[in-house]
Each structure stands twice: as structure tokens, then as C-alpha cells.
Amino acid sequence: MAAVRRRVVVTGRVQGVFFRDSTRREARRRRVSGWVTNRADGSVEAVFEGEPDAVDGLVAWTRRGPVRARVDTHAVTEEEPTGETGFAVV
After folding, report:
1. Is 68 within 8 Å of 56 (Cβ atoms)?
2. What's the rounded Cα separation, in Å, for the pair 46 and 75?
3. In whole numbers, what is the pLDDT of the chain averaged over residues?
4. Which residues touch 23 (CB under 8 Å, ≥6 apart)?
5. What pLDDT, on a 0 to 100 scale, did the predictor assign at position 12?
6. Which residues does UniProt call coiled coil (predicted)?
7. Active site residue 20
């Protein structure tokens, strides 16, 4: 099955609640590549690339995030895969 790529931007209480590290752990558990970062506007942005079911599961997980997070908005954009390997917190 061909890889897919999704870019996710979440807002709310998503910084200072281990959102990035929790996303990294979830991505590795699901064998999804990509990265996650805090943005200057207080949101979190992530790119996920891998098997469609794994990526979809991770995208769904980001709708709620870790226990202390509160996700107010959740935007997902489909992109062409670029061959990401590994998963980084940047």
C-alpha cells in the first residue's frame, strides 16, 4: 500500500502539556515518520507520513492529544509523500 502524508495544525492548550513528545511516542508506536514542532502563535504543527491506516490513526489521536491538552481547532492537509524517515521533535 502506498504511503500517505498529512500536515496537522492544532490550537488550544497544546504547548507545555507534552503534546510534541506524546506525538513522537505515538508516531513511533504506529511506525509513522515525520516531525512535530511548536509554532510561535502557540499552535503545534506536525507532518505524518506512512501507511494510510497508521497515519489516519495518528491524525485522529491529535484531535485530543495527551491528557493535559485541550484541542480547540484541528486542521488537516493532504500532501504528496516525500519519503520522510524517522520521527523528530523540532
Report:
1. no
2. 11
3. 97
4. 36, 44, 46, 58, 61, 62, 65, 89
5. 98
6. none
7. yes
